Structures are given as C-alpha cells and as structure tokens.
Amino acid sequence: MRETGARDGRFENSSTLMVLAGMTFRKSQVAVLGGALLLAGCSFASDTLWPSLTGDEPAAKKKPAVEIAASAGERSQSPTLTPAPMTPPPTLGTTNFVPPASAPNQMTGTFVGQKVAQLRQELNLLKQKLGAHNVTLQQIRQTTTANAQRYHGTVAAVNARLQVGTTPGNPVLVSQWNQSQAQLDRIGADIASMNSLANGVAGDSAMVSYLLETLRAAYGLQGAIDEDHRQLAILEDETNRTVVLIDRLLNELSEDISRQTAYVGNERRTLTTISLAIKNGEYYGQSLSNRAYLSATSLASNSQRPAGGIAGQSRRPLVVIRFDRPDVPYQQALYTAVSKALERRPEASFELVAVAPGHGTSAQVAINSSKAKKHADAVLRTLTDMGLPASRIMLSSTTAPEASTNEVHLYVR
Fold it and tell me: Is residue 368 scored above 80 in pLDDT?
C-alpha cells in the first residue's frame, strides 16, 4: 500500500505536471496569438501613419490639372533682356546765334558821317564772322550728336552681349570695343573744335568791344550834324546787341565744352571697366568712379539771388577783381588763388559775386549792375576754361555803396 501510495503519489504528481504543462501550452498559444495580433497591428499602424512611396497622390487628394497658357516672354525665341544702364549724353545748347540785320547808312558828307560809314562797315564784317561762327557751331553740334548716338549704340550692343553671357576675350566684343573707343575719340575731337571756335569768338568779342569804345568817342568829334549823331546812336545800339549776342555765344560754348569734357572723361572710365568685363566674359556695368555731372549754372538764372551781403560781412573774399580800366589782367592771379584754395580743400566750391556801385541815379545803378554781371560772366568763363567745374560755382549780384567801380568778388564756400 505504501508503494502503491507512493506510486499513486507519483501518479498524482505526474498528473499535476501534465495539467501544468497543458496550462503552459495554452498560455504559449495565447502569447503567440497575441504577438501575431500585435505584429499585425503594428503593420497596420505603419501603413496608416507613413506616407506612400509610390509617387502617386491618394485618390482623395487628386485635383483636375489646370493648363496655364505660356506668356509672351516664354513663347519668344530670343531671351528677354533688361537694358543695361547707360549715362545719357549731355544736352547741347540749342540757341541759333543769328546777328540782326544792319540799318541802312545815310551819307551826310561830313567827316563824322564818313567815320560812321567806316564803323558800320567794320560792324558788318563782325556780323558776317559771327554768322560764320554760328554755322560752324551748329555743324559741330550735329556732328557731336551723331557721334554720341553711334557710340552709345556700340556700347549698348557690347553690354547686351555681356549681360547674356559670353566667352572670355570674345574677339567680336573686342572689335566692338575698339569701335566705341574710336567713336569716343571723335567726340573728343568735337570738343577740340568747340575750343577752337571759342577762341575765334573771343577774338571777335575783343574787336566788338573796341568798336563800341570808338563809337562812343566819335560823339566828341567836331563838325558833326544832328543826322550824324542819330546815325551814331543807331550804330551804337546795333553794336550793343552784337556784344550781347557774342557774350551769349561764349557762355553757351563754355557750358557745352564743360559738359562734354566731363562726359568724355566719365565714358573713358566706363570703357576701361567694359574692357575688363570683356576680358573676363562677365557684365560689370558702369564704372564705380562715374558721378552724375551737373549742367553749368548760367548767370541769368542766378543773377537775382541775394548775396550774403557784401558790406559789413564777416567772411573775407578769396579774390577781389576791380574793373577800373579796360583789359584788367586778372587771370594769373585768379588761377594761383583758386589753385591754392583747392590744394587746402579739394572739395571746395565757390561763390562769384558781381558788385556794382550803389550810388548815383537808378539808371546809373542799373547800368553799373549790368556791367558788373558781364564782368562776372567773363570771370566764370575764365574759371571753367581753367578746368573748374561750373557746378561748383554759384553766381549772385549785389550793390555796395562803398564801391567806387565795378568789382567781382570770389568767395570759398
């Protein structure tokens, strides 16, 4: 019995082991099934959360394609380019300096009448020369405008090619650059022609001034009749109009020369930059050293500006030019003073003041003011001819009771 019991006990233990093993098997099945479900769940979550890599959009997000018509630029066979910035050529003067016709001469048979006829003949010769100068000026202006247009056309072609892109040292661009250089040299030759014309007009200005003084002296000749003095007055008026015309011609020539000289200097620097761009096959644009130039300030536009006060003002003028006699030799002293001022202050600008005596009748004051402005105009032309930019000179006029003669004062601003 004990053995049986022992066996039964063993049997009982074996049954227990079998039951436990069955339970373990069932748990393993549950674990395996649970793991399979978890794996399936993970696979489902992965398919749901991560985007598809097939390259197609989900059916719900697909929209009908809308076709957009091509623009004019896209349909064009040639590329659309932004035009390269160019400095426009300076505007030349447009005045036509035609001298007025002379009044007919009436012979009186006196010595003064003969003198009037001689002076009228000299004035007519001056008018003929002035007319020839005017024709030359208009021809130079037309030639300069045509040369500037050709130059800008060539430079624009070079810039357009550089903007698109080209090979370094393109021989076609090198040839065009040489053409533009030659065209710019022609503009420089036009400036030389303007300078030569200005010299000729300056000689006529000195001649007409001498003629005017001779006319005024003829009033004091003995043996004249009333008709002689009437003819002298008419001739004096014509000579004065000729003086004004020559002064305006000189002013406009001086302004044209100043603007064209600055323009050619800027364009030479631009060509240097373009040469580097052609060498590298890249587009650089204008030279960094170029600055906008200003038109020369005319005396007429600033003559009414009140000066800073001549009498009692604290600042001292750099130069005082007293026109107490004809042909005052002020040029060398003026050049020396302005040169030293620019050495101390290279950025300095100047104010040119026409000072007229303030005493006498209103007519005398008006005449003196007109003469003082003419003297200031002459000093302005001298300064611009010396190379000082006209944009750095301000013009004004005033009267001074303490002045005994017409003066021109130059101040550093």
Answer: yes
- Helix%, strand%, coil% for the chain, nearest 5: 60, 5, 30
pLDDT range class, residue 274, cuts 50, 70, 90: confident
Supply the pLDDT for residue 38. 42
CB proximity list for 148: less than 8 A, separation 6 or greater: 89, 187
Three-class SS of residue 353?
Answer: strand
Helix residue spans in 219-289 (DSSP H): 226-280
Q: 320: which DSSP letter? A: E
pLDDT at 313 (0 to 100)? 53
Answer whether 0.70 is exceeded by the pTM: no
The Cα–Cα gap between 377 and 393 comes to 11
Q: Residue 265, class by beta-carbon neighbours within 10 Å (0-12 exposed, 13-18 middle, 19+ buried)?
A: middle
Q: Which of 46-50, 250-254, 290-294, 356-360 has the lowest mean pLDDT?
A: 290-294
How many CB atoms are located within 10 Å of the residue 209 CB? 15
Q: What are 146's two structure tokens? A: 């045509």
Q: Which two tokens stand for residue 280?
A: 């590298």
Provide the CATH number for the domain formed by 294-413 in this structure.
Answer: 3.30.1330.60
Angle (CA) 326-306-321 rounded to 5° is 25
In the numeric block, which tokens belong to residue 372?
């003082």
Q: How far, in Å, CA of 198 to CA of 190, rounded?
A: 12
The H or E element containing residue 399 is strand 393-400
- pLDDT confidence bin for 70, thresholds 50/70/90: low
Q: How many helices (H) and strands (E) does the chain have?
A: 8, 4
Domain extent listing, the chain: 101-293, 294-413
User: So what's the pLDDT on residue 369?
Assistant: 87
